[in-house]
Structure formats: C-alpha cells, structure tokens
Amino acid sequence: MKSLYLDNSPIAYYIDDGANGEWLVFLHAAFVDSRMFEKQFGYFSGKYNLLAVDILGHGKSVHTRKGDNIEKMSEWIDSIFQKHGISAAHFVGVSLGSVFIQDFACKYEDKVLSLTCFGGYDINNFDTKRQKANSKSQMKMLMKALFSVKWFAKANKKISAYTSDAQTEFYNLNIQFKKSSFRYLSGLQKLVNKRPKKQRRYELLVGCGEHDIPTEIEIVNEWAEYENCDKIILEGAGHCANMDVPHKFNICLENFLRKNRFNES
C-alpha cells in the first residue's frame, strides 16, 4: 500500500491500485488506524483496488490546522476520489469507521456501490437512549485515557477484541493514539440522527462478532430486520471482528462483494 497525504488537509491515506477493477475502501475503528486492516489488504490485493483512510486525529492524520474537524471526513474522502479518478467504490467500516462510510453515503450516494458496517449502528436511526448510554460509556473511557493512555489501551483492548492475538494487536495500535485527538471525536454527534431515513440504492451488510457487547448484537439484529439487508454475526469474534477472525471476515466480505459486483449478474 502506498502511503500518501491529501493536499490541503491533514488526511493520510493508503492506496493499492494494481487490480484494474472496482475499488474497496476501508475506514477503521476509534483509537487505532488503517493498520487494523492489514490482513484484509493482503487478502484483497489484486482482487480490488484498495483505499484505506486514517480518520482525523488517528494514525498519520494528525497534522491538523485551525478549522479541521471530523465533520469534513466525507468531503476529504471525496477529494481523494477526485484526485485518483475513483467514480464509485464498495465501503467497509468497523465501529467508528462505519459512521463515516454512512455519512459519505448520505452525501455522495451515487459514489457508493455497497456498504459493509461492522460493530456500528444506523446513524440515521440511532435510539436516543442508546445514544446517551454510548456517550456515557465513552466518557468513562475518556477519563481513563486522560489519566493514562496505557491504562486506557489495556481496558480498551478487552472491549474491542476477543482473541489474545487481536487484543495485543489492538493495544499496540491504541497506545499510539494521542490524548489531544480526543477533541475531534466530540463532533460525532453532529453526524447522528441529522437526516431522515430513505430507501438505499445500494446493498448493505451489517454485522459484529458473537462476543461483542449484547447491545451491539441487538442493534445489528434490529438494523438487519428493518433494512431487510444482509447480516453476519461472526463466531469467535468480538467488536473488531476483522482482527479476531480475519479469514472468516474476509470470506464473508468477499461473498457479499461478489454478489454486488457491477460486472456480474
């Protein structure tokens, strides 16, 4: 994957454009970066052109300027599309990443071939009580981070991953997250429940791991039911299922993408 920066922005991104076919875009979970998808990059390289973006305040997307905020992520992604001549793509988002791929789809629907949201929720239909509970839980984690990033990362790895290998991998990425970047996450509420629901013109896959928190499993089941979309609850996985069971995740994602490729019936 080639490491690049978007002009006139703080955004770092990674591209593998050797497939001469459709594009697959990855947006990562909170407190880590695009490296959480390394096993997906290896699997899908040559099958799809790949793009992964470090969310503002994460990974290498930290050289910010006055006025930069998380609400601009969709605009920045679209600028990457324009720079590289990407007309449309399949999107994969895990946890926080699923928020931004949905926001992009709301603003640039004609540039979306499909959405895959793991460990996320419907940003246009998020229950108010759950939203408040989610904010309360995030505040508790923030307090840990302000006291000690190591303490925060140790607690967060158990929430975010299930297998010991994935927990170690998550911790090693999380430990590099800067305390100063927490301020950007406060803008997330401006992306939730701000638009009316409407019929999607692309296919949707929602999912999580069987060992994710019960509330997330409820959200995924309810989301799949009212959207009448594809759903996967992956065995042996937690919140970041792509890290816990990468082979299962890759196969399920590939099957979904094959079903929705424009050049196949």
Compose a concise summary of this entry.
With 265 residues, this protein is an alpha/beta fold. The protein contains 10 helices and 8 strands. Helix 2 crosses helix 3 and helix 5 (149-160) runs antiparallel to helix 6.
How would you sum up this structure, described in words?
With 265 residues, the chain is of the alpha/beta class. It has a single domain (2-259), classed as Rossmann fold, CATH 3.40.50.1820. Helix content is 42%, strand content 17%. It has helices at 38-44, 73-84, 96-107, 128-147, 149-160, 164-174, 182-185, 214-227, 241-244, 246-259; strands at 2-5, 12-16, 23-27, 49-53, 89-94, 112-118, 203-209, 230-234. α1 (38-44) packs across α10 (246-259) and α5 (149-160) packs antiparallel against α6. It is globular and about 45 Å long.
The strand order across the widest sheet is: 1-2-4-3-5-6-7-8
- Please tally the helical runs, counting DSSP H or I stretches of 4 or more residues: 10
Give the CATH H-level superfamily: Alpha/Beta hydrolase fold, catalytic domain
Total number of domains: 1
H/E series: EEEHEHEHEHHHHEHEHH
Q: Can you tell me the residue ranges where pLDDT is under 50 for at least 5 consecutive residues?
A: none
Give the name of the CATH architecture.
3-Layer(aba) Sandwich
What would CATH call the class?
Answer: Alpha Beta
